[in-house]
Amino acid sequence: MKIKVLIVDDSALIRSVMREIIGSQPDMEVVGVAPDPIIARELIKQTNPDVLTLDVEMPRMDGLDFLEKLMRLRPMPVVMVSSLTERGSEITLRALELGAIDFVTKPKISIQSGMQEYADMIADKIRAAAKARVRARPARSAEQAAGGGSEALPQIRNPLTSSEKLIIIGASTGGTEAIKEFLIRMPSDCPGILITQHMPEGFTRSFAQRLNNLCKISVVESAGNERVLPGHAYIAPGHSHLKLVRSGANYMTQLDQGPPVNRHRPSVDVLFQSAATCAGKNAVGVILTGMGKDGAQGMLEMRNAGAYNFAQDEASCVVFGMPREAIAVGAAHEVLALQAMPGRVLAWLAEHGSRALRV
To answer: pTM to 2 decimals?
Structure first.
């Protein structure tokens, strides 16, 4: 049974390229193309697609307005197609909040050398979207967004006793929302956090800024050579692997532009392996929703080095790929629903507080 895809984009050239890429996949068929959401609405009724690819910026009806209505009235897997601009990245992040499964950047038509890799990426994301759990996203109240209105979370005994501990997070498809839900519930005195989320260059900065405005902790796109501090989260930039290194008594961030690992740069395995090497039992590993297997081997190395690891469960994942692989190789100590994970991680840290590094 082929995956039925509907393409919605105001650019005739992009529609043509997407139709060619998707139509060439043996397990997919393009059931329609639409230049705007008004026509797309009729085609959805006629063709009943499995996955929609949707341009974020279009005439007649804004892509976000259309997505919001779609997720309220007929939730279905949507992959956003975005421009590599600051505005494009901000709109894309909002689309993920509204319930889009994933996004791709618009192809660079003039650069033929990367088109096969681009085609493979689109196909992978559509396959993942077809299997993903789609949930309409309820509006978040201002109190919830600020971290209020939820159950009381365990407090870490004396902030300084936990500064030696680190939280290391990896995610992919569906991860932007999962990371947001996790970080919103972190107290201002939580251990330093390093994050690799599969994202292209240009989007990670907007992602970090968005989280920084929502969370009690400070969230930044890592610039490298930063001292890892309690109450701070460092997100791998879209162009580089993020690594954890030691400098005397301190933990530091390091950026590495080496080749992709598991087809990704940044790679979760690279981050996890660096944490295994230099943090060992002081690290807490967290692997969240995402397709593929990136992070499984690195998390196993973390466990073997003494770290304590958590994996998101299948029911709460958008795509149960990376956590499933980590669980399969025996890397996870606990498997939890996303909602339960922040509280459980903090409880474990409260129970296992240790001697501080210099602060």
So the answer is: 0.88
